[in-house]
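Appendix B. Worked example

We walk through a single record from start to finish. Start with the input: the chain for thioredoxin-dependent peroxiredoxin, Sarcoptes scabiei, length 162.
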Amino acid sequence: MAVKNPLWMPSRSMSAIVQRQAPYFAATAVVDKQFKEVKLTDFQGKYLVLFFYPLDFTFVCPTEIIAFNDRLKEFHDLDTEVVAVSVDSHFSHLAWCNTPRKQGGLGGMKMPIISDLTKKISEDYGVLIPDAGIALRGLFIIDANGIVRQITINDLPVGRSV
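Next comes the structure step. The output line below is what the pipeline stores for this chain.
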């Protein structure tokens, strides 16, 4: 598919900066319990909330991921998509989605959960902790033209509220 808006092209920059083009990504995600390639350009023409979390099967992460997922319709009503990213494999994401919420899992998820196993996306967005090999809790609002409009990065123990 040809890109219609020349502003919505992959960034040559390797770090997300407000008012600049968002770093391009393409990776495998779990979407409705299926594996699917998800690309930044899939969201052209819509706002995107792209958020990073450290690891699957941890204690703070499911509460914020579930909160985003449970309010997905509110985001869609604002012509906004929500996508989660971690350095875990897509197989780990699927296992977490297949685990019931009462057992520490995510249960049914509607939003894509991207596998950043190579850690390139986390690095490109400036949230990777290299020594630990995991991402900080980063949240990026990207506009319909692929421009980063807002960045929030939290330390590992600091959760987020939708």
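Two observations about the output. Strands lie at 26-31, 34-39, 47-52, 80-86, 113-115, 128-129, 134-135, 137-142, 148-154. Residues 8 and 87 are 25 Å apart (CA to CA).
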